[in-house]
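Render this sequence as a predicted structure.
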Amino acid sequence: MRRSLVIAVALVALSFLFVGGPSLLFSPSTDTIDSDETETPELVSMDGSESEFWKYLSPQERFQERSPLNVIVRGDSEDITYAMTEADDGDWEEIEEVEAEYEDDETPLPEEQFLEEHDRHATGIEWGDAHGTTRYAWIDPGPEADAYWSTETGQLEEGDYYGQRYHIRLYESPNADDEWVAMQAHTEHFDWFTLRHRVDGVEAAQSKVERDFMDHPGIDVEEDVRRVYLGNTNSADSDGWATVVDLAGLIVLPAGVGLVARRRARAAGDVDRRTDPEQVADHTPTAIDDRLTDVDRRRIAAAYDRLEAGHIVLVFTILALFLGVRLGGIALERNVGFLTPHMIAALLYPVIAVGIPVATYLIAGTLTRRLDAAVVAAGSLAVAFWLDYGLLGVDSLPVDVVVQRMLVVIALGLIAGGAARRATRESRFNDMLLAGVATWIIVLGGTLLGYF
């Protein structure tokens, strides 16, 4: 029992050191968004229009300041959607069909039929069976009608559903003469441990949409694109400024003249490494060996003696399973058109929920020491998380995700420690193993039910 407590404490320390600590230190968005309700919302009006709208979106039909509107485009809604979806070499793609079956009160994008006739679709997967989360906009048509909650007119994305994507919700003006479309743009990634998209921020997506409109050949950047301060800063990285683009009166030409939405390209500059030959010589194995004390050598030898082939196998198995699900989801999404997103999730999620702990248990059962097995398994899963976030370009995490990741790291470490040979001398169902399995099931089950 005492040994189990020591291992548990070590796992808690490891999870905080490699997951919780770095996340809370380096993530600018770890604080949860304030959900305080506003009693009398401040509405935004555009010049020359009677209608107004609230500067946030809400997950429910009440005033919760959750998602800041950050792009407003003046012009005919059909021209706007045409410009954003019909560029020959653009990557903006409609995902309205994904949510139509689950959100019956949504209005199809005006050019949906035209796009279908030209074989425009989101990705290789047919998105009819997918679903998305509804966000509500408060819109006041003016003195002739009552204000109301509106669902999105349409949605656009660029990127991978099972990777990271730019996501935009569009809300059309209630009066045809007002000619504005308010948008909420953000970046998000798919979280395989929660089976939901996690919003990473709004600033990068706003800048991308802004740049794309600025690339439109009919746009005068100095005259038609500006930013206005709305003060809707109640979000992870929102600065309260919204982009306003004026497309009113612009003639949208056929394909080739619309927006060009390019995928992000990360420039990798060549680093000129000039190293002093003396410094190279000073870091040779011989130089390092000369600096080791006898105590250091004994510790290295002891650690080497504890190393087993199963440790290496366990590390690469956990990494392969977790990262394989991420890459497999993206590959299936792009290349297997008959699989819906729900089918892909049903195929791959069991690898996360069942495959990782079962593989860990089987491999850790070949290891001798409990602490070694626990630390290797927990550390491998923590490394897998960071490699995954690096692959997606995610640099911010909310607190609930950080806590959940710490708990699953601890749970997997307990499963590995409880499966080691020294832990199973008396019974294979020992306290460490049972605690690890229970924690794993509770955390994943609670996550799927929305408690994490």
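Summary. Residues 309-335 form the longest helix (27 residues). The radius of gyration is 26 Å.
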